[in-house]
């Protein structure tokens, strides 16, 4: 009997198959003979002490016009699955947290969940890197606009962003004295009721915001530099940046080696580290991307390398 792999993700009908890393993972799993089951986060539930879900059998194809078939839903204990990939995109809101708590229950009942649900709850993608402040640009996180304004004044120029967004959404670059400062800070903090992050502006963003994928604490040797479009400061592909292949540098390998024991201890088996120059800016843990772009540019099988790790560490 083949191994059963569940995936919790956003609606598969709405993905961009040419670019979607979750689809790349599913295609590789199917090539290896896994039986695939598809869930939305809202398909998960608990029945007494049992973690359950309404799963749909899934078949995937590498076809931008016809990339999946799902069968009829079936109520099932999640313990029927061997592994679950939690790949729902941020925001990490109350619904997401509840889904991870149900997945923690499944984990306690013998299912391998990647990434570990407790780590998904604890490792905020913007804040987690601050456990290694010497690797990061100067950073301040606050809900008080005055504290963020003071940071901009200290730095002369800063990047402002929310803690729960992705894909370059709601990222601002402000210089000291910028007339838009007040409205940006009011918007990001909801008038002082929500945390936001301010980071030192790194001019090397012109060279790209580099994504390094890390499997079980080990960096994949091929990375993606996301170069901002003309007139932009965001390298995110979702914000119009372009991808260029880039090798993983010795400095980046050293950062991975420093982070690896913590990543392994927490069960963060699939992570995306973001670098600008030599500075670590984010640790992405929810649904790290760029598999398809790295494959296309470098002629490699990134998802295959991940499954080599997954099967080798079972």
Automatic annotation (TrEMBL):
Pathway(s) it belongs to: Sulfur metabolism; glutathione biosynthesis; glutathione from L-cysteine and L-glutamate: step 2/2
Catalytic activity line of the entry: gamma-L-glutamyl-L-cysteine + glycine + ATP = glutathione + ADP + phosphate + H(+)
Molecular functions (GO terms): ATP binding; glutathione synthase activity; metal ion binding
One cellular component (GO) term of this entry: cytoplasm
Keywords for the protein's UniProt record, in alphabetical order: ATP-binding, Glutathione biosynthesis, Ligase, Magnesium, Manganese, Metal-binding, Nucleotide-binding
Gene3D superfamilies: 3.40.50.20, ATP-grasp fold, A domain, ATP-grasp fold, B domain
Domain ATP-grasp: 126-311
PROSITE patterns with a match to the protein in the record: ATP_GRASP
Membrane-spanning intervals of the chain: none
Enzyme Commission number(s) of this protein: 6.3.2.3
Cofactor(s) required for function per UniProt: Mn(2+); Mg(2+)
Family annotation (SUPFAM superfamilies): Glutathione synthetase ATP-binding domain-like, PreATP-grasp domain
NCBIfam families, A to Z: glut_syn (TIGR01380), PRK05246.1 (NF003573)
Entry's family note: Belongs to the prokaryotic GSH synthase family.
Name of the protein this chain belongs to: Glutathione synthetase
Source organism per UniProt: Halorhodospira halophila (strain DSM 244 / SL1) (Ectothiorhodospira halophila (strain DSM 244 / SL1))
Encoding gene (name): gshB
